[in-house]
Design a protein that fits this description.
By secondary structure, this protein is an all-alpha fold. Helices cover 78% and strands 0% of the residues.
């Protein structure tokens, strides 16, 4: 299924080169994904019977995700001074790539647990992430940015999970159909973004290679250390591992552009890490399975 995702990305690349998906079209796609299809996909993923194991896994996803974010922030602070480099190191493309990949590999359970990860992601993004670019220390400023359609969808999903609420069939069908748009639209958008990148210039920037190696190799590898604790559900570790194996978040480039701080560098890191991830994402499942076997020996 991962191969299918990247074929769709290549179609997006082609459409971008043809100028079919560019400018206003990309803005429209982004709006639909963020505000419509992705929240519906998250709620739709909650429309199944939860077990105690799933609920326990959700709790562990929060704990592991928070630990990895703290580790990533410390690592980025030690290695880099530029805001763009720190942001691109800490935050992976959890939304546009992480959730669709989890959906394709694990289905509704993986998608919901990935949405739980998103709660932690947004908490760190709109507190630590925004603090990199702005001097505002007001909690109310960060709170306004944390609240978004996907986070609201996660809250609704949690309510559904703990109340065993049955979504009416008509609404469930709408959620499923609209949520199903998220994966192909996300891949098309990422592909069209790559069409605008001058890779000859990117290859000359040394910091890009360092950030990409940390983002795609070192941080995911740190997640594997949790395999040493047999009481932690494997699926919780797998969720955090998969999402952290994604390239730098597109939002890191958006924040740099908004605050006019190394926007070209930030966008280049997003593009380059996304390109490299086309290769690395094929290997992540095998790496996890092998590490799981070693942890059990």
């Amino acid at each position: 299924m991962v191969i299918v995702l990247f074929i769709i990305m290549l179609i997006g690349l082609l459409l971008g080169k043809m100028k079919v998906v560019s400018g206003e079209a990309k803005n429209c796609l982004s709006f639909i994904i963020i505000n419509v299809s992705m929240p519906m996909m998250i709620v739709s993923s909650c429309d199944f019977e939860f077990t105690d194991e799933t609920k326990a896994a959700a709790l562990w996803v929060v704990i592991i995700a928070a630990a990895i974010f703290i580790f990533s922030i410390l690592l980025a602070t030690i290695l880099f001074k530029k805001e763009a480099l720190r942001c691109a190191t800490v935050f992976s493309n959890a939304g546009y790539m992480g959730l669709p990949v989890l959906d394709s590999i694990l289905g509704p359970t993986g998608l919901f647990l990935g949405a739980i990860f998103q709660m932690v992601f947004h908490l760190f993004l709109w507190t630590y992430g925004i603090s990199l670019y702005t001097k505002s220390n007001r909690f109310s400023d960060s709170l306004k940015k944390i609240i978004n359609p996907s986070l609201i969808a996660v809250v609704i999903g949690v309510v559904i999970m703990f109340t065993d609420f049955d979504i009416p069939d008509a609404i469930s069908t709408v959620l499923e159909l609209m949520g199903g748009l998220t994966t192909p639209l996300s891949m098309l958008l990422i592909g069209s973004t790559l069409a605008e990148v001058n890779f000859k210039e990117i290859f000359r920037i040394k910091e890009i290679y360092i950030v990409t190696a940390i983002r795609l190799i070192i941080i995911p590898a740190s997640v594997l250390l949790f395999l040493l604790f047999p009481n932690i559900p494997r699926i919780a570790i797998y969720i955090v591992f998969i999402i952290n194996a994604m390239p730098s978040a597109a939002v890191s480039g958006i924040l740099a552009l908004k605050y006019k701080k190394d926007e070209k560098l930030a966008s280049s890191i997003v593009a380059f890490s996304t390109l490299v991830s086309i290769v690395t994402v094929f290997l992540i499942t095998e790496v996890f399975d092998f590490a799981s076997i070693l942890a059990l020996i």
